[in-house]
Amino acid sequence: MRYPFLDLGKVNEPYRDELIAAATRVIKSGRYVGGSEVEAFEHELSNLLRVPHVIAVSNGLDALRLILRAYVELGIMMPGDEIIVSANTYIASILAITDAGLAPVLVDAGYDTMNIDTSLIEQAITTRTRGIMTVHLYGRVAWDNRLADIARRHSLKVIEDTAQAIGARATTGGLYGSDRAGALGDAGGFSFYPTKNVGALGDAGAVATHEQDLAQAVRALANYGSDRRYHNIYAGFNCRMDPIQAAMLRVKLSHTDEENADRFARALAYHRTINHPSVITPTMTQAVIDNVWHQYVIRVTCGKRDEMIRKLAEAGVGTDIHYAVPPHRQPCYHGQLRHGDLPVTETLAEQIVSLPVATGTSVKDAADIARIINTIDL
Ligand SMILES: Cc1ncc(COP(=O)(O)O)c(C=O)c1O
Questions:
Q1: Which residues does 155 contact at the CB level (< 8 Å), separation at least 6?
Q2: Which domain covers residue 30, as residue numbers?
Q3: Does residue 2 lie within any of the structural domains?
Q4: 341 shares a domain with 317
Q5: 364 Rama sector, left if φ>0, alpha if ψ -120 to 50, beta otherwise
Q6: Closest Cα partner for 151 from 187, 122, 113?
Q7: Which atom of ligand 1 is least distant from the CA of 89?
Q8: What is the DSSP string of 230-281?
């Protein structure tokens, strides 16, 4: 491929020396679970997000599972309670909800954001609704005054799936003053899977929260349910982040804003250059901050998405689809998830194509790929 979709070696190449130095520090320290490296990472992420509590955990799914399980342990949610969530998401958002014994209620996306359509949230609320999981999919902040207002009026917890949006900022303020995604609502789950904007060299994740009780419960649950050594208040899990990943992430985290700005520049090149009659490009404001472009997702509206992908591959352009089969159509949930009609989510699954946008794709590459798209006859 002349323009690979993603080359993780290239993503980490600029930091190679720093990563090796950080790994060497951990090897020499003799501390391979917990300890100062993990604590320092938690402190640095909490500073970036302007949130009082950060708990470093094993991956993004575990971060979301731990938040919801902690709300159940604290008696704030009961098994069978409902969590409103975007239907257009990666299945991990839904897995976290069902794993805690809660019921996801899927709400359709809007074409303009591809995130939850906040005008549809209120009609999905019932007497069992306890929370809204807002998913900042593709790096775009899924947050507005309407969502914040509904959460307050109905006393709902707002959990943010921030797996794809580290560093993004909302243009309207969060519930607690911070404008960073993952710190807008009550609790945020982050993923540092290697392909993410801030990627570890393996699995890693984090929980951020403004609530002290939740932070304590999550920390205990992630460590066998123990609040102190050999004293277990919950039947918990082992969901800790390794110090070696914390050390890798401390290097990567310090470059969050510049990495995101580079993604914005590539997205802007696509935005300015693509003018194919059957292609709709994602909505783009000139604000670098409200979308950190984890994916640059176009829609092919003439019913020939797969032909577009094939012709791009022939021209040396790697692509992906996020996601071809939405969660409610996955075999594991067959017929079990609550939702009304989901026309936007269903249509998106048939139309979307993700273009290369990570480090390794230059701004010139993005413009070249856009010009290739413009010449494709469908
Ligand atoms: C939207 C979303 N939520 C949750 C996750 C889960 O993160 P992880 O892969 O670290 O478990 C991912 C990433 O895969 C994701 O994209």
A1: none
A2: 8-253
A3: no
A4: yes
A5: alpha
A6: 122
A7: 1
A8: TEESS---B-BPPHHHHHHHHHHHTTHHHHHHHHHHHHHHHHHH---TTEEP
Here the tokens at position 281 are: 């490009």
CA 311 – CA 304 distance, rounded (Å): 11
Nearest-atom index, ligand 1, CA of 64: 4
Q: Are 170 and 181 in contact (CB under 8 A)?
A: yes
Three state DSSP letters for 280-302: ECCCCCCCCCCECCCCEEEEECC
Chosen domain end from 201, 230, 253? 253
| Phi and psi at residue 166, to the nearest 5° | -60, 135
Residue 92 beta carbon below 6 angstroms from any ligand 1 atom: yes
Residue with the nearest Cα to atom 10 of ligand 1? 60
CB atoms within 10 A of CB 123: 9
Number of alpha carbons in the 13 Å side-chain half-sphere of residue 40: 16
Q: Are residues 336 and 320 in the same domain?
A: yes
Q: Which residues contact 65 (CB under 8 A, 6 or more apart)?
A: 95, 96, 99, 100, 239
Instruction: Quote the CA–CA distance of 23 and 292 in Å, as a whole number.
Output: 28
Ligand 1: residue whose CA is nearest its atom 12 = 163
Count CB atoms within 10 A of the CB of residue 112.
Answer: 11
Whole-model pTM?
A: 0.98
Q: What is the pLDDT of residues 313-364, one digit of tens each?
A: 999 999 999 999 999 999 999 889 999 999 999 999 999 999 999 999 999 9
Give the residue from 200, 195, 219, 224 showing the smallest Cα distance to 208: 219
Whether the CB-CB separation of 179 and 290 falls below 8 Å is answered with: no
- Is 239 domain-assigned? yes
Q: Please tell me the total number of residues recorded for the chain in this structure.
A: 378
Whether 365 shows a pLDDT value over 80: the answer reads yes
